[in-house]
Design goal:
Elements: H1 4-26, H2 30-51, H3 55-72, H4 82-100, H5 117-121, H6 132-141, H7 144-155, H8 160-167, H9 171-199
Length: about 200
């Protein structure tokens, strides 16, 4: 096991390395941009995939997101980690893509449920424990509107007010989409458990 001091030094060196790469990217260094891309590509593809229907769509959004990263990097002030900052850009790029293509237009039809107590209260995620991979696999199966709201609320930890502002919907619509997503996920979990019980 490495001494704590050595681990701390490694952490500092990594931070310095990232800062140097960021500065070189700002200076237009193509090699540094390639290095930054390789450092974050796998993680960001995972972020984009949570919002997309296919790997190809996720790759397209990730590429668009990295263009935004490189063109706005000079605005990064270090108030959050660079990972958090890039993740938010990817998330916003995916949401903007949905809005531009009107893929979330149907979500407005759920406004009539905004005062329904059942939809207001059911904001918990899934009652049964799941691994991250299992949960993400189920989330990927959700209808687009459900999936986007569930991701924003349960995984990216945004409030219903923030979600409403981002998507141009009401808070009630956001709550109803989350409730419906949670209900569908729970149904799939129950179905999976029933099958497992039958096979035992």
């Amino acid at each position: 096991m490495q001494p704590k001091e050595a681990c701390a030094d490694q952490g500092k060196n990594h931070t310095l390395e990232v800062e140097e790469i960021l500065q070189e990217c700002i200076n237009g260094n193509a090699a540094a941009q390639s290095k930054l891309y390789k450092m974050f590509a796998n993680k960001m593809l995972g972020v984009c995939l949570r919002y997309c229907n296919s790997v190809d769509d996720a790759k397209d959004i990730m590429q668009e997101g990295f263009v935004k990263v490189f063109t706005t990097l000079h605005k990064f002030k270090g108030n959050s980690s660079v990972t958090t900052w890039i993740t938010r850009i990817m998330m916003n790029t995916a949401i903007d893509n949905f809005r531009k293509n009107k893929k979330l237009k149907f979500i407005e039809s759920f406004d009539k449920y905004s005062n329904d107590q059942d939809f207001e209260d059911h904001t918990e995620v899934v009652n049964e424990p799941l691994s991250v991979d299992e949960l993400l696999a189920l989330v990927q199966k959700l209808p687009t509107g459900y999936r986007v709201v569930f991701n924003m609320y349960a995984i990216d930890e945004m409030s219903h007010r923030e979600i409403a502002n981002h998507l141009g919907i009401s808070e009630g619509t956001s709550k109803s989409q989350l409730a419906r997503a949670r209900k569908q996920l729970q149904a799939w979990v129950n179905e999976k458990q029933s099958k497992q019980a039958l096979n035992q």
